[in-house]
User: What shape does this take?
Amino acid sequence: MKFHSVGGFSEVGKNMLALELDKEAYIFDCGLYLPPIVELEEEKHTPSRLKEIGAFPNDSVISNIRKKVRGIFVGHAHLDHVGAVPYLERKYNADIFSTPFTNEVLNSIAKDNGVKMVNNRKPVMPNSHFNIGNTDVEFLHVTHSTLQSSIVVVHTDQGAVVYASDFKFDNFPVIGKKPNYARLKKIAEGGIHTLIVDSLYAHLEQKTPPEKIAREMLGDVMLNSQNEDGCIIVTTFSSHIARLKSIVDFGKQLDRKIIFLGRSLDKYVGAAARAKLIDFHKDIGIYTYKKDIKKILRKVSEKKNRYLLVCTGHQGEPGSVLVRMANGKLPYNFSHTDNVIFSSKTIPAPVNIMNRKALDRRLREKHARIFTDIHVSGHAAREDLRDLIKMLKPQNVIPAHGDMQKLASLAELCTEMGYKIGKTVHIMKDGQRLTL
Ligand SMILES: [Zn+2]
Assistant: This one.
């Protein structure tokens, strides 16, 4: 079998891999590269502009197998895994498989950007499998920082191919179940040919803490450090539905009115509601249009201590609600009574670091209280990765989801476990082909 590393092997983002068998081929993920998109600021995201700035994986490297592609499997709903699907799917005559939540997000990305998709979308329940021709494919439930994430398994004549990007081993999830360890072990018994795996935190000598820890941290700050006269303003990843649920739960405990501000929050919360995975959307108000946001912020300003605001802007993105509030473009005056909670981590791309610095400076000038890093990661760290590899005992490992340094960290872990670089652990760059 052949592996084509299309994207996400020379950078963090635009993840895309193709598996080529004798008569057919499959694509895993098709995501966006986000840093240059952030730099577009409020400029319109037309397909040609996105292509020009390198936001799409360069799938011309698999144009020779285009006609063999029988399925596109999307593991989860993050934009760096699903975001390019609406733009590239038309080149393939293949159904698109994903869990119901991811499918809802995919549909809304296409709709919001006015892109008409041509292939069928096939929602797949977590922990279920289906056939494409004679090939059996499984979507195994795993935990991550968004809902209904999956490890995708393709059962071939030569053993299973397991695609685990992204995941964490969370034994205390806030929404949904623990990872399906039992089924992973069962698949391992049948023999795994190749594991393609998330290497983002392979260098971190940790087991990533569970989401429950982030919930406790958040509860501590929201319940015990609130100012009776001020507003609580929280920002987090819009796709992190479990985190949003915790924020809403504490907001209810505080008896504050809960207001969500921003389009991407609406997109992900709407998708989770349509997939019937949450009911907290009934307890909140969501505002997306400038006019409505202005109106509600005027109201909030009159009685700040009655409200909890959840808004976009955790990376200091220029068009986000929090940044526009801090820059005085929206009718809200920060003061020393306001608590601003970043339930997030700054993604270490230069553009994000710069944007966050600018936002923090603005907030400090206005004497708002800032709480940063009220967060735990959604990615497996080194010791989780070791557990996964030990559990699956794959014949081959292909590190994915990172630049050379991150891939090399995972490869080094594999060599500790007896794998040989170039023989059983394979470092690829974007646009390469590997025959195993
Ligand atoms: Zn992810």
